[in-house]
Amino acid sequence: MGSPTARACVKLALDHHYSPAIAVRLRERGHDVSAAIERGWQTEGDETLLEICASEQRTLLTNNVGDFAVIAGRWVIEGRQHYGLIFTSDASMPRGRRSIGSYVDALDKLLGANLSEAAFTDRTHWL
């Protein structure tokens, strides 16, 4: 296992919809990951959460496609930058205890393939 800087430069935040265990296991694999629940962000509004992520240069993993797609679209018009959104769907990747390992493996692979810290800047990606 490499060091966090050697493994990946993309910093990730998990919306409150995801288990903090995903963040713990990704950190064990050398990634810079924070869970909203760990940081006390679970009560923040969507736009505030995206602002926090932008200030920390973090890509946000979220299941809340409808709200965040609208916010990101408005930010583009306003000339504001975000550090990326990774969307998931309960249809293809259900959230729950049994899926933690699947999330860890998929995110580890995605982060490992995108080593530039700006890899997801102003982009959306479906996991």
Which key phrases capture this entry?
127 residues, Rossmann fold, 6 helices, 5 strands
What does this structure look like?
The chain is globular and about 40 Å long. It has one domain (4-126): Rossmann fold (3-Layer(aba) Sandwich), CATH 3.40.50. 29% of the residues are buried. It has 6 helices and 5 strands, in the order H-E-H-E-H-H-E-H-E-H-E. The protein is of the alpha/beta class and 127 residues long. A 5-stranded parallel sheet has the order 2-1-3-4-5.
Question: How are the secondary structure elements laid out?
Answer:
Blueprint: H1 4-7, E1 11-14, H2 20-28, E2 32-35, H3 36-39, H4 46-55, E3 58-62, H5 65-78, E4 85-87, H6 100-113, E5 124-126
Parallel strand pairs: 1-2, 1-3, 3-4, 4-5
Helix pairs in contact: 2-6
The stretches of 5 or more residues where confidence is low (pLDDT under 50) are 1-8
Spatial gap, N to C terminus: 23 Å
- Fold-level CATH name: Rossmann fold
- Domain count, please report it: 1
Strand content: 5-15%
- CATH architecture assignment name: 3-Layer(aba) Sandwich
Coarse shape: globular
Overall residue-averaged pLDDT value: 93
Beta strands, count: 5
**How would you sum up the major sheet?**
5 strands, parallel
**Structural class of the helices, strands and pairings?**
alpha/beta
| CATH class label | Alpha Beta
- Rg, Å, rounded: 14 Å
Q: Describe the strand arrangement of the main beta sheet, using strand numbers.
A: 2-1-3-4-5
